[in-house]
Specification:
The structure holds two protein chains of two kinds.
Chain A: H1 3-19, H2 25-32, H3 36-48, E1 53-54, E2 61-64, E3 67-68, E4 74-78, E5 81-85, H4 88-98, E6 102-107, E7 114-120, E8 123-124, E9 130-133
Antiparallel strand pairs in A: 1-2, 2-3, 4-5, 4-6, 6-7, 7-8
Helix pairs in contact in A: 1-2, 1-3, 2-3
Chain B: E1 2-4, H1 7-14, E2 21-24, H2 25-36, H3 49-58
Classes of the chains: A alpha+beta, B mainly alpha.
């Protein structure tokens, strides 16, 4: 990843947090004084480097891990906003990335019982819960949306 | 990558599929902070595979399942 793509990646993440949503290619192009095509080409390189994940059909952002651009089963209240994590790991990752306390809201995938976890000083308030990872680490990026 | 109420709920959800790995939510929280805390830093650099593997190892997430 060269400095140009690193700058594009960092700007994309900064805008995600400032806007509270995934920036569009137009948003980033305007902020970076680039063309939309230049942003799209840079995002494609970052996607290939696993630095973010694009929607296959639109080439807009699907994931700027740990943030999800689309609603998921993992909603996070943190830093005065609502966010979505791509999975349980990412939900806690949003608090970690923002360096704030927060609340993760989800439901048990088996029974549907709501689960709410407060994260305070990097610790969950309910330590009885379990995290299950189905896909072995070597295959996480085979299909990152499924993972 | 999901959160469950108990081991029993994991097994019911798997419905006979081969299980992956189950770890306490406290380990997950530690993992998230080690993995993602630099994500918004202005001087962020991509983690190498070795750096990420070291994070997993440090938290006891070892063995073939956790090999990147």
């Amino acid at each position: 990843m060269d400095d140009r793509d690193l700058d594009l990646r960092n700007l994309t993440y900064r805008l995600f947090v400032e806007l509270g949503r995934a920036p569009s290619a137009d948003d980033v192009a305007e902020a970076a004084a680039l063309t939309r095509a230049e942003v799209a080409e840079g995002w494609r390189r970052l996607h290939d480097a696993h630095a973010l994940v694009l929607e296959p059909r639109t080439s807009e952002i699907r994931m700027a891990n740990p943030f999800s651009a689309v609603p998921t089963a993992y909603r996070v209240e943190a830093a005065g906003r609502s966010w979505y994590g791509n999975c349980a790991w990412d939900a806690f990752g949003i608090c970690a990335a923002l360096h704030v306390d927060g609340r993760v809201q989800t439901a048990c995938p088996d029974c549907g019982e709501p689960i709410g976890i407060e994260v305070r000083d990097e610790r969950p308030d309910d330590e009885s819960l379990l995290f299950h990872c189905l896909v072995p680490a070597a295959h996480w990026w085979d299909d990152i949306v499924f993972t | 990558m999901n959160l469950f109420r108990s081991e029993e709920h994991v097994e019911l959800w798997l419905a006979g599929r081969p299980p992956g790995a189950t770890v306490p939510v406290t380990t997950l929280c530690d993992l998230a902070h080690a993995w993602w805390s630099d994500r918004l830093a202005p001087d962020w650099q991509p983690h190498t595979r070795e750096q990420n593997q070291a994070i997993l190892n440090r938290l006891g997430l070892t063995g073939p399942f956790w090999r990147l």
